[in-house]
Known about the structure:
By secondary structure, the protein is an all-alpha fold. It has helices at about 1-20, 30-50, 50-65, 70-90, 100, 110, 115-120, 120-135, 140-190, 195-250, 255-265, 275-285. The longest helix is centred in the last third of the chain and has 56 residues, at about 195-250.
Amino acid sequence: MFVFIGMAIVLASVLGGYLMEQGNINLLIQPAELIIIFGAAIGGFIISSPMKVIKAVQGAFMRMFKSRIYSSSDYMDALVLLSEIFYKIRKEGLVSIEGDLDEPGKSAIFQKHPSFLKNHHALAFLADTLRTLTITDIEAHEMGSLLDYEIEAHYEEALIPAKSIASVADGLPGLGIVAAVLGVVLTMKKISEPPEVLGHSIGAALVGTFLGVLLCYGFVGPMSRNLEHIANEDREFLTVIKEALLAFINTPSPQVAIEFARRVVPGNLRPSFLELESVVKKAKKK
């Protein structure tokens, strides 16, 4: 939603200012310039990107336009889920959660937290870590290193679409110049025409430069930064889960582990100690 709002603001500001100066919108409608710029940009992206990157960019665009960001309720849901899992482990042992990990969709614990179930990366991260704990006696510091590597690998993979889109954005001003130069070349064929004809032709050529710069700094560049923010939010969410797991390995106390995790939740989304305690108590009574 906010992506569309931002686009509307960019267009309204640029075109509104242009119209305030008695500009003619029809002069900005140059399909040939758009074909040159967009076609070359898409072609360059395909040349530089293997198929897995193209698919990753498609998926990232879908997520960006869905405005899927983490909310305080997402973090609360994750903390309560972790609390329930830790209490079950403490009472019944690690073996008791194997069924929950094998089929989370059918697990009584996971079913109570649908928002977490939909987060496939976080679900896999949690399940794989708990499975590791059930089959090995890994030390906390070793598990910490392993989880750090996994989070960093996921983060770098999540940044690939952002970097790809940023490279496209960087090339748009240059492609705008290409479109403008081609327009000037066509204008030279009309050198014997009256000044008003030449002026219209040169203006149409300059639209190419305008479109390239506008697309770069008004649309495509901000999109790449949006994707960076999404990747950062994923890393922050996984870090909360990591801290809870490591704290539970060190001191198998659900309360302590959840408090460690709560402290690393981003400040604007972090529930208070009393809020979290109240929700956890309610969940235990169900």
